[in-house]
Amino acid sequence: MADESKSESVDRRRHGRKGKRRRPKATTKRRRGLVITAWIAGSVVLLGGGALGYLYYQLNGNLTGVDINAALGTDRPDDVDNGSMDILVLGSDSRAGKNSKYGKDEGGARSDTAMILHVYEGRKKASVVSIPRDLLIDRPPCTKDGQEAPAAHRAMFNTAYEVGGPACAVKTVEAMTSIRMDHYMEVDFSGFKNLIDDLGGVDITTTERVRDKKSHLDLEPGDHTLNGEQALGLVRTRHAVGDGTDLGRIKLQQAFIKALIDQVKDVNLFGNPKKLYDLADTSTKSLTTDSELASVDKLLGFTRGLKGIDSKHMTMVTLPVVYDTIDINRVVPMEEKAKQVWQALLADRPIPKSATEGSVGNQPEAGKVVESADGPEPDPTGSSTGPTPTTSAPALTPTGTRG
């Protein structure tokens, strides 16, 4: 890995749109969160031995890869080796196939959950920036299956995946941030549910009642071990927390992910080979990645560096936004504050608290509804990261959007 100063790294990377041949990074092995699936899939290889040869090829055949580099070509931000890594993580809301029980299949899928995971140099800390699916953006032109989707003004962020698939989602994020995504990962509804079931459930504590008929969820305050269906209902609910919009749901998802990370770290997978294999089989079947990660050995290399990152070393924020003045069921970026977020990640530095102050995405009451079984997590990095300011109620009150 090239050892460059921060200023040199940022100068090379800032807002660059010129294509540049990728140099292999010394770290193909970082990240956590929803992509806990990758860690599980890769870990099975560590059981080793010739007897696992057949299982290795079976798991390898489960994976789905998308060649993002070929799809996007050279019109991307510069790829700079400054020791950090950025991964776009999507949860798909497709209702096709096994997902039909979660709603009518209308012939397409959107990104129900979108997060940019930034792993800092040294692989000891990470920041996650959640992107509201109802965010209005300027979507770039995209191509899917030979069909051109023209650029669109004031398009919802989650339509990028709908019109152009994973490559368009990556292209849209890179246009928003000027940050090149090193990897892409996607999990669908059924895969997430099955993963939680194979894990044996996730332990959480609710601080108030969480009830949402649409998500078939009814949890009293107290300790719970959620099965897959309950966990899926929890991360999908928006009516039960915060202001009833996607913004409250994001905070709930962030709290659940931290609980999930803690749960996986407490499970002795290597002491239970069958459980490890079941988890790896489920993970690889439900996981879509960029082609650079679409094999078990590459996933293993990618995940070996994750051991140092737990929930106490992960800062999770929502992109700073305000309600749109034309349609209050949509949000738009706070441009200057969003720029602070992206510039911090470009420089491989903590996201400053000031970057999210005044954002309607800060809903501390929604984020406190769910805790891990061990209680709330402290801010791992002190005053410089982990922004959780309390904001006053917004003047506009949205009525809720697509569930």
Describe this structure as you would to a colleague.
It is a single chain. This protein has 403 residues and is an alpha+beta fold. Helices cover 32% and strands 20% of the residues. It is built from twelve helices and 18 strands. It has a seven-stranded mixed beta sheet, sandwiched between helices. Strands 13-10-18 form a three-stranded antiparallel beta sheet. Helix 2 packs across helix 9, helix 2 packs across helix 10 and helix 6 packs across helix 7. The N terminus and C terminus are likely disordered.
- With helices defined by DSSP (H or I, 4 residues minimum), what is the helix count? 12
- State the distance separating the first and last CA atoms: 44 Å
- Share of helix, binned: 25-40%
Which structural class should the secondary elements be placed in? alpha+beta
Report mean pLDDT, rounded to a whole number.
77
**What series of H and E elements makes up the topology?**
HHHEHEEEEEEEHEHEEEEHHHEHEEEHHE
Subunit arrangement of the protein: single chain
Main sheet properties: 7 strands, mixed
Spatial arrangement of strands, main beta sheet: 1-14-9-2-3-4-15
Q: Which percent band covers the strand fraction? A: 15-25%
Radius of gyration: 20 Å
Unreliable stretches covering 5 or more consecutive residues: 1-35, 45-51, 94-108, 377-397, 399-403
The strand count comes to 18
Q: Give the overall silhouette.
A: globular
Summarize the structure.
With 403 residues, this protein is of the alpha+beta class. Helix content is 32%, strand content 20%.
What is the topology?
Elements: H1 6-13, H2 36-43, H3 53-62, E1 64-66, H4 68-72, E2 85-92, E3 111-119, E4 126-130, E5 136-139, E6 142-144, E7 147-149, E8 152-156, H5 159-177, E9 183-188, H6 189-199, E10 202-206, E11 210-212, E12 217-219, E13 222-226, H7 228-236, H8 246-266, H9 273-286, E14 287-290, H10 296-303, E15 314-318, E16 321-323, E17 331-333, H11 335-346, H12 364-367, E18 370-372
